[in-house]
Amino acid sequence: MEFGLQLNERPMEAPREAHGHNHWNPYVDTGGTSLAIAGEDFVLVASDTRQSDGYNINTRYDSKAFELSNKTVLALSICSADGKRLYEILEQRAQLYFHKHDKPIGTEALAQLLSNTLYSRRMFPYYVFPILAGVKADGKGVAYSYDALGNMKDVTHIAYGSAAALVQPFLDSQVGFANQRNADPNRQLTRDQAMRIAIDAFTGSTERDIYTGDWLEIFVVDATGVHKEVRELKHD
Amino acid sequence: MDPITFELPHTLKAPKAAPSLGPTSRTMQPMITGTSVVAFKYKDGIMMAADCLGSYGSLARFRNENRFMQVGATTLLGASGDMSDFQFMKHKLEDLLTSEYDMDDGQSLGTKSVYKYVSNIMYGRRNKFDPLWNAYVVGGIDNGEAFLGYANLFGTTYQSDCIATGFGAHLAIPILRRRVEGRADEISEEEAVRILDDCMRVLLYRDCRAFNKQRRAKVTAQGVEISEPYALETDWSIADRVVGYGA
């Protein structure tokens, strides 16, 4: 047995950097863009349906926005595989809630559940940037934006995905009226205005972002339920 | 405390400064590989093609591989990538079919169920950092409707009217986009065979891991049919006039 430091010995060899290097990377970015615009008594969610792998288009129709209940929609971005699994988990939990309590799960409850689910994978995160949008118990429209670890914030407008850098400033201007001295900060968008802004955001993004295009799924959620509409984007 | 150390001859010593072996790692490279699978929907169902080569790096090692598997009555699985991982998947599917049969409830495994099973295994293995090194195409007829889906080692999945793996994604998809997309239900069996052979011929000319011995497979209302191996007619007379691409 040895005690203390033997001066004639060389210090222990520094561990070699083995982690992170030469390691298989399980994350892939399959592209696509999602946005949400919250109004007074409604919320709009829009996602394109292109799925890409590098310069290849895998498919022109792969949904990444889903109805979780008749008052909540979930839109995912970035990694399609993780997004689909996350949706399945939330869908199952929403079903369990419904059968247990005989009423649909509320948007606020789902929002916290999503945050917890993301954080439960803190050490191997889902590579997704979710937007959860719906109407709250008081009938007001709300959109929650998340990062991959579960940080959550309710917002009036948000864009995530491959064209987020193109869409977010557009929404800041047209929905948030940012840096516009003569704009009324309390002005609320109507449904038609929100719809036109969402469509314009995606037609513009399709021109400049190769990962966004093909089809656009738009969900409008209000007190009467979820209304889905599919529009065509450019297929190039 | 002043250390007083003495060693008996039989004292076991812990190794000093053990070199770091790093975290556990798993075999992360495919050995025997199969190249592209090409598949699309047509009027009567779905059609697929894949050649019979199992490559060992650049060596054309096994020249009589079958890269298709019939799963249940109405489903076809086509595999590219590591052939031993494909064999593993075949064993899993055979086990699944056996346990479903043992249920004895008159139900049979549908195409979408097989596709979900394959997808979940691929995604599960990715999450274990121990992927099955494959790209799979699952095709079939599910409740009278043609189905075609893809799953790979990252757990990425999608459905489309035309799917091709590997080099096929670069060389066959542009052909299929022009000749199949949007008109799948107009394509007769004869035309489907022509389209498929044209895709496979382009791959044979340009993919160094392709092989002129291939199988065609289809799923129609009549069930699954996997052809015997056959060769394509080729024309290399213009080959010496091709310029560029390193040639």
Automatic annotation (TrEMBL), chain A:
<dbReference type="GO" id="GO:0005737">
    <property type="term" value="C:cytoplasm"/>
</dbReference>
<keyword id="KW-0963">Cytoplasm</keyword>
<dbReference type="GO" id="GO:0005634">
    <property type="term" value="C:nucleus"/>
</dbReference>
<protein>
    <submittedName>
        <fullName>Proteasome subunit beta type-6</fullName>
        <ecNumber>3.4.25.1</ecNumber>
    </submittedName>
</protein>
<dbReference type="GO" id="GO:0005839">
    <property type="term" value="C:proteasome core complex"/>
</dbReference>
<dbReference type="InterPro" id="IPR023333">
    <property type="entry name" value="Proteasome_suB-type"/>
</dbReference>
<dbReference type="InterPro" id="IPR001353">
    <property type="entry name" value="Proteasome_sua/b"/>
</dbReference>
<keyword id="KW-0647">Proteasome</keyword>
<keyword id="KW-0378">Hydrolase</keyword>
<keyword id="KW-0539">Nucleus</keyword>
<dbReference type="Pfam" id="PF00227">
    <property type="entry name" value="Proteasome"/>
</dbReference>
<dbReference type="GO" id="GO:0051603">
    <property type="term" value="P:proteolysis involved in protein catabolic process"/>
</dbReference>
<dbReference type="InterPro" id="IPR029055">
    <property type="entry name" value="Ntn_hydrolases_N"/>
</dbReference>
<dbReference type="GO" id="GO:0016787">
    <property type="term" value="F:hydrolase activity"/>
</dbReference>
UniProtKB/TrEMBL annotation, chain B:
<keyword id="KW-0378">Hydrolase</keyword>
<dbReference type="InterPro" id="IPR016295">
    <property type="entry name" value="Proteasome_beta4"/>
</dbReference>
<dbReference type="InterPro" id="IPR029055">
    <property type="entry name" value="Ntn_hydrolases_N"/>
</dbReference>
<dbReference type="GO" id="GO:0005737">
    <property type="term" value="C:cytoplasm"/>
</dbReference>
<dbReference type="Pfam" id="PF00227">
    <property type="entry name" value="Proteasome"/>
</dbReference>
<keyword id="KW-0647">Proteasome</keyword>
<dbReference type="InterPro" id="IPR001353">
    <property type="entry name" value="Proteasome_sua/b"/>
</dbReference>
<keyword id="KW-0539">Nucleus</keyword>
<dbReference type="GO" id="GO:0005634">
    <property type="term" value="C:nucleus"/>
</dbReference>
<dbReference type="GO" id="GO:0051603">
    <property type="term" value="P:proteolysis involved in protein catabolic process"/>
</dbReference>
<keyword id="KW-0963">Cytoplasm</keyword>
<comment type="function">
    <text>Non-catalytic component of the proteasome.</text>
</comment>
<comment type="similarity">
    <text>Belongs to the peptidase T1B family.</text>
</comment>
<dbReference type="GO" id="GO:0019774">
    <property type="term" value="C:proteasome core complex, beta-subunit complex"/>
</dbReference>
<dbReference type="GO" id="GO:0016787">
    <property type="term" value="F:hydrolase activity"/>
</dbReference>
<protein>
    <recommendedName>
        <fullName>Proteasome subunit beta</fullName>
    </recommendedName>
</protein>
<dbReference type="InterPro" id="IPR023333">
    <property type="entry name" value="Proteasome_suB-type"/>
</dbReference>
<dbReference type="InterPro" id="IPR016050">
    <property type="entry name" value="Proteasome_bsu_CS"/>
</dbReference>
